[in-house]
Design a protein that fits this description.
By secondary structure, the chain is of the alpha/beta class. It is 33% helix and 29% strand. The chain has helices spanning 12-23, 49-58, 61-67, 97-110, 226-242, 288-306, 312-341, 345-351, 356-370, 396-400, and strands at residues 3-8, 29-32, 46-47, 69-77, 83-94, 114-116, 121-127, 130-136, 139-148, 164-174, 182-186, 196-200, 205-213, 246-258, 266-267, 270-272, 374-375, 379-381, 403-405. Strand 12 (196-200) and strand 13 form a beta hairpin. It binds flavin-adenine dinucleotide (FAD).
Length: 406
């Protein structure tokens, strides 16, 4: 039997494409993944306000907010160890990927999409220069179109450019003291221009990780030992809080693949999307929002061809154009941010928090990191010698004083 569309990979990109095809009423769509679901994915599991907008469009906003841990505030630690605290108007959410990805797949199934887990795609089937299906699980599955959403290690991407990556390493801890509803982003000199993070997943569980460039300026793989850098990061920033904490499972490492100009994301018969097409943010490493949005664009493009509204060529061009229009400026902004983060700018802002100009710059930087509008209220020094807030302590006072510094 020939499918109308096969989607390879049921991460946020592939599953969002499936949901969009279901919403558009496209029949005979197959979503496949090498893993059975629910499955774990190495990820900070942070859903930005932008991501939540797409999630609402996909129809699972209520479930995600109900199961996720809401975030209203962000503490930025500068390379010079000063701190700035800001509050978001619109909450972000942390939801473990195992749960989040499964919610999306269940939503796709509810809309009539066939899902097959535990089915690894080995190759694309081509005929006369056109993709006409997928070889998977020993079978040749034929389809009019294929959407490739197989993530950072994509074996199907045909982008010939050398890969640019962020190396990330992370772990999970319970009984870890943190300020409720607050993300921490730490711009440590050892990670420059990237950062380490603490994301609370529940009232008692956090994930902590670091990200650093996977290549040097000439594109050669960096030889730094990420594990050693992470150990030092934990010692430098969390030694006191780790004493009573209990680590859950092992540390997990994974690359994040990014680009600035989205290119070679289509070929006759197929579209590449999400991280398989390198559509992630080069400084924050955010990729869930980009995967879902490019997934909905790919779903729309394929639906337009199946519905006879557009030729495949026009629909594929439209897909690349929509992706570039939505993401390129942010990716260029990411490079500007990388440059700014290598200068003492962030430290200068934190020192002179009373200057309205510097508060405005902080607002712009924090908003681009958080992907949403940040609210400034009163400014007040943050007392680093005071003990870390316990998970049970009320945070009303801290939230009232949203821009702080030592
Ligand atoms: C440590 C770390 C922390 C991160 N934190 C965040 C964060 O907090 N917020 C955020 O927005 N982003 C974060 N990211 C980035 C984010 O995880 C990815 O960009 C996002 O998952 C990309 O979605 P995707 O659907 O394109 O690919 P993926 O989520 O990687 O999904 C790809 C799917 O394809 C399947 N697959 C792969 N190959 C095959 C095959 N041959 N056959 C069948 N199936 C296949 C896989 O099993 C997988 O389910 C983080 C990344 C890392 C590494």
């Amino acid at each position: 039997m020939e499918h109308s569309i096969i989607i390879v990979g049921a991460g946020p990109g592939g599953a969002a494409a499936a949901v969009r095809l279901g919403q558009r009423g496209i029949k005979n769509v197959l979503l496949l993944d090498r893993d059975d679901f629910p499955r774990a994915k190495t990820c900070g599991s942070g859903l930005s306000p932008n991501a939540l907008k797409v999630i609402d469009e996909l129809g699972i906003g209520a479930e995600v907010r109900q199961q996720g841990y809401p975030i209203h505030s962000l503490i930025l630690t500068t390379p010079g160890r000063r701190q700035i605290q800001l509050r978001t108007e619109q909450a972000a959410t942390i939801l473990l990927r195992e749960q989040f990805d499964n919610l999306l797949v269940e939503r796709a199934k509810h809309l009539g999409i066939e899902f097959r887990g535990g089915m690894k795609a080995q190759a694309l089937v081509r005929e006369g220069g056109r993709v006409v299906g997928v070889r998977a699980g020993g079978e040749e599955l034929r389809s009019k179109h294929v959407l490739c959403a197989d993530g950072a290690h994509s074996i199907f991407s045909w982008d010939p450019r050398p890969k640019r990556t962020i190396s990330a390493l992370m772990g999970w801890w319970e009984n870890f003291a943190f300020e409720p509803g607050t993300l921490e982003m730490i711009f440590d000199k050892n990670l420059s221009p990237l950062y380490g993070w603490l994301f609370p997943e529940t009232a008692d569980r956090v994930n902590i990780g670091i990200c650093m460039d996977g290549e040097d300026a000439s594109g050669n793989k960096t030889t730094r030992n990420v594990r050693q850098v992470f150990d030092r990061f934990l010692d430098d920033h969390f030694a006191d809080r780790l004493i009573k904490a209990r680590q859950i499972g092992k540390l997990k490492g994974h690359p994040i693949s990014y680009c600035t100009w989205i290119k070679d994301a289509t070929t006759p018969g197929a579209i590449y999307l999400g991280e398989g097409a390198r559509i992630t943010h080069n400084t924050t490493g955010e990729g869930i929002f980009q995967a879902m949005l490019s997934g909905t664009y790919a779903g729309d493009a394929a639906a337009d061809v199946v519905d006879g509204k557009l030729t495949e060529r026009a629909a594929w061009q439209g897909f690349e154009w929509r992706c570039r229009k939505r993401f390129t400026l942010g990716f260029i902004g990411g490079h500007a941010l990388r440059w700014a983060l290598k200068t003492p700018l962030l430290d200068g802002i934190a020192t002179a928090y009373n200057s309205p100009l510097k508060q405005a710059i902080t607002w712009a930087i924090a908003s681009s990191l958080a992907g949403s509008t940040m609210t400034e209220q009163k400014a007040r020094p943050r007392n680093r010698s005071s003990p870390s807030p316990s998970p049970t302590r009320s945070t009303t006072t801290q939230i009232d004083h949203v821009i702080t510094s030592t």
